[in-house]
Each structure stands twice: as C-alpha cells, then as structure tokens.
Specification:
Layout: H1 3-12, H2 20-36, H3 41-44, H4 46-54, H5 56-68, H6 75-81
Helix pairs in contact: 2-4, 2-5, 4-5
C-alpha cells in the first residue's frame, strides 16, 4: 500500500473522465454483472470506475449492490489499488 499516493489521489480527485453520480448509478448493475462474470468492468466502463474511485456515496451503493448480487463488496476498489 502506498499511503502518500492514496492520500494524493483523495485530495486531487479523479484523473480521468468522471461519469457522475446519476450515470454511474444507471450503469452500476451492468458494471457489477460484468465484474462477477470475470470481465474487465473498469476497462469497459472507465468513466464509471473513475467515479467510483472518487465518490464515497456511489462507492457505498456499488458495494451494497455487489454484495446483494453475491460477490464480495470490494470489486472496483480492488482494481484501483493494483494500478
């Protein structure tokens, strides 16, 4: 874990295009379904992934949806940490 880099990301916010709350929530089910099938959701929906990295409220909704769908709640965040 790189604490200084994570802190800097939180301060500066997203570096890519951000889909925004409304659009991200519209696509959340597709994002989660693709992840749970083993697909590359972050690559298929890069604007949504950027938004989930930046928005704690949407990230919480995403985690709940992922858990309800039968997967572990960590998904999108796990992908972000590997970068």
């Amino acid at each position: 874990m790189n604490a200084p880099r994570d802190t800097l990301r939180r301060i500066l916010g997203p570096t890519g295009r951000d889909a925004g709350c409304e659009h991200s929530l519209e696509l959340a089910d597709e994002f989660v379904e693709l992840e749970l099938r083993g697909g590359a959701a972050r690559e298929a929906f890069p604007d949504v992934a950027t938004h989930l990295d930046a928005c704690p409220d949407c990230r919480e909704d995403y985690a709940g949806l992922r858990e309800l769908a039968g997967g572990p709640p960590g998904g999108a965040q796990e992908g972000r940490r590997r970068r």
